[in-house]
Amino acid sequence: MTDQAHQSEIIFPKFYQRLIAENLAKYDVLAEMEPWYFMEQQKCFFAHTLWPNICNEKLFVFARRQDNDDLAAFLVDVTNKAEQVYILHGWTNEGFSIMKKLPDIWSWMHMVIDDMQEWVELNEYL
Per its UniProt entry, which superkingdom is the organism in (predicted)? Predict the structure, then answer.
């Protein structure tokens, strides 16, 4: 079964469903959440398909940070419910490493806002 087929079985958080359904998620590197951006649905993937044998968790990658190899992934549990968000650092010698575990997408959004603030302060904007 492909990642797309497995993706349709995931029970995503309501907030994430709303972002996708109402086209509120921006898929551009220069999106409103810079330095983070959501990945287009067809580009989302399960970490184990790209990096097998790294961990036993089913991690569905849905967002990426543009200035490094950090990824945001939902932990999909045995009931196919996605709630926790893991921050992964991809493309390491081992494949990827888990940098942080967050309880939900709201916690991830708070982290994104902090990253946005740092991004704006480090870069020159008018």
Answer: Bacteria
Q: Which pTM does this prediction carry?
A: 0.87
Q: Where are the domains of the chain?
A: 3-122
**Whose structure tokens read 């994430």?**
16
Q: In terms of Cα–Cα distance, which of 99, 92, 28, 16 is closest to 66?
A: 28
Kindly tell me the burial class for residue 86, based on how many C-beta atoms sit within 10 Å of its own C-beta (0-12, 13-18, 19 or more): buried
Task: Look at residue 13 and give its three-state secondary structure.
Answer: coil
Bin 22: left if φ > 0, else alpha if -120 < ψ < 50, else beta. Answer: alpha
* CA 102-25-115 angle, 5° bins: 45
Is 82:10 a contact under the CB 8 Å cutoff?
Answer: yes
Q: Is the pLDDT of residue 112 over 90?
A: yes
